[in-house]
Amino acid sequence: MNCLNDTFRAVKAASRQLNLIDEKTINSLLCAVADEAEKSASDILAENTKDLALMEPSDPKYDRLKLTRERIQAIAADMRQVAQLPSPLGKVLSKTVRPNGMEITKVSVPFGVVGIIYEARPNVSFDVFSLCLKSGNACILKGSHDAHNSNRAIVEVINRVLITFGIDPHTVVLLPADREATAQLLQAVEWVDLIIPRGSQALINYVRNNSKVPVIETGAGICHTYFDAEGDLAKGRAIVNNAKTRRVSVCNALDCLLIDRSRLGDLPQLCAPLADSQVVIYADEQAFAALQGGYPSTLLEHAVPESFGTEFLSYKMAVKTVDGLDGAIEHIARYSSKHSEAIVSENPQHIARFFKEVDAACVYGNVSTAFTDGGQFGFGAEIGISTQKLHARGPMALPEMTSYKYLITGNGQIRS
Question: Which residues form the Aldehyde dehydrogenase domain (predicted)?
């Protein structure tokens, strides 16, 4: 394929021009894109149908890939919400005056060019564009082959509006769907400031291992809920069912239920609501014995080593018996992707220790992991859930899409 350096160079130039656009224009543009998305829904859905035709409905990614008129309306509403959020740019983070009169001001600024590599989720194209534009960043989108027709239709909508506003359409660019484009993006250190992968652990590992551009890891969620010896059964039933079945294809969905050995007798009641959603349970030996006769046999399987540490993204869940809080913390430390972990317990000391020792971006006490989402945290829209520790962790909203720089002013000061 052709070298993409000219494209990268054009996006970099467009990112510099974004610094000159006022916030009112940015907000108007976002609302105009939302309007155009709704007007063009039939065209977008026609292209999305082409992508869906190439994927089996049983594939866990099918629901993520699928667009509907209602989903497009929700996407448009999200963009209008982003337009209403305060700008994260130009915020004075600190200001000091040195003894020599030199004034040092730390202010928030855009990264510049953000590359997003993502799998079969065409809504990400709109989401990323709105968040990047609001935070002053140009964006390079590298979607998967699975969603290429959908992504192309979406970017065409965005570009039409950009041109109407007199803004360089290179503010958002969709790369070809092949792997060579990904490889070139990961090497584009001269033009790209940041890469954010959104998708499976395999995708994230590939980007981390091959990128010369700085990376913020988001997406993969191997999430556990520990039902403690002092857990409340009613709370546990509701939390486990919600975390597992609310939406199985998202990264905050429950993958593994850990149960204290002393509460195995309550396991059938704890898991009972899952049967209504046809959740297949992969249980270890002790949990399997406890569930026999109390959970549908057609939905009960023996766990294998691969059952643990797996992000199922479907109506499947592992169950592991542990020896108390120590066993739960040890299991999570071994298998967690550091996304979202929860404990169900009425013992404040157990919750406090779980909070201290579990290493994850979001740690819950008596709450479903389904809440790991920027909107649910009150942050507004998000670009993803960061599972690392440098720069950003947890839901990445507009403030996390900025860096900062120091502005130094004076009156002729020189250094001796």
Answer: 39-212
Strands 362-365 and 340-344, sheet pairing: parallel
Using pLDDT thresholds of 50, 70 and 90, give the confidence band for residue 289. Answer: very high
Q: Which amino acid is at 318?
A: A
| Three-class HEC string of 328-379 | HHHHHHHHCCCCEEEEECCCHHHHHHHHHHCCCCEEEECCCHHHCCCCCCCC
Which residues partner with 386 through β-bridges? 218, 394
Owner of token pair 């590599």: 117
Judge whether 114 and 140 are in contact, CB under 8 Å: yes
Q: Which of 276, 318, 278, 315 is nearest to 301 (CA)?
A: 318
Helices (H), 53-196: 62-65, 69-84, 123-134, 148-164, 179-186
The token pair at 202 is 């395999």
pLDDT digits (tens, 9 = 90+) for 322-356: 999 999 999 999 999 899 999 999 999 999 999 99
Check: CB of residue 144 under 8 Å from CB of residue 151: no
d(CA 80, CA 376) in angstroms, rounded, equals 17
Measure the CA–CA gap between 292 and 281, rounded to whole angstroms.
11
The residue type at 277: S
Rounded to 5°, the CA angle 273-278-284 comes to 80
